[in-house]
Amino acid sequence: MIINSPVLVLNQSYEPLNICQARRALALILEGKAEMLEDGLGFLHTSRASYSIPSVIKLEYTVRRPRPDSKLTRLGVFYRDGFVCQYCGRETTLTIDHVIPRFQGGKHTWENVVAACVSCNRHKAGRTPEQANMKLKKIPVKPRNQGTFFLPQRYTGNVSRWEKYLTKFGAG
């Protein structure tokens, strides 16, 4: 049914927020809470009027949503470090290295963990980079959470109509 078709919902700043059904999108438009940016698949006819089914709507107000913290994961560290060893710069099999070893008081945090190749990790062993006479390519920092919009797989067929709104915010 066309009234159940998916509609991309954008914040006032054009940031993708959600996907709702066309029925809900039309209600938001008629209540003056949103404006239609893209037409959808057709029209909804009532006894008094015809309404274009939206494909993309923008809210007239800003919705503030919390940004969850980036969880410290092995893959997250590799992404942050560009899948290269932070000591020698090679793209090879990677391990996780604590810059300040844990037994020396180093914490398991974004600021103390880097991607390292097996040979560099062995060479550094349980020492700090200074003690091992090794230099980091860049200082490890906690990645900023971009709050990117996640597009569920079942909606990927709509990306052609939504693409210009998704690419700006790294989604899609």
Please give a structural write-up.
The chain has 172 residues and is an alpha+beta fold. It folds into 2 domains: 2-66 and 146-169, no CATH class; 70-144, DNA Binding (I), subunit A (Orthogonal Bundle). Helices cover 18% and strands 25% of the residues. Strands 2-1-4-3 form a 4-stranded mixed β-sheet, sandwiched between helices. A two-stranded antiparallel ribbon has the order 5-6.
Keywords:
172 residues, alpha+beta, DNA Binding (I), subunit A, 2 domains, four-stranded mixed β-sheet, two-stranded antiparallel ribbon, elongated
Which stretches are poorly predicted, pLDDT < 50 over at least 5 residues? none
How many beta-strand elements? Answer: 6
Overall geometric form: elongated
The end-to-end distance, rounded to whole angstroms, is: 25 Å
The number of helical elements comes to 4
SS-based class: alpha+beta
Beta-strand content bin? 25-35%
Q: How are the strands ordered across the major sheet?
A: 2-1-4-3
Q: Which sheet architecture does the biggest sheet show?
A: 4 strands, mixed
CA gyration radius, whole angstroms = 24 Å
Provide the domain count: 2
Order of helices and strands: EEHEEHEEHH
* Average of the residue pLDDT scores: 88
**What proportion of the residues is helical, as a percent range?**
10-25%
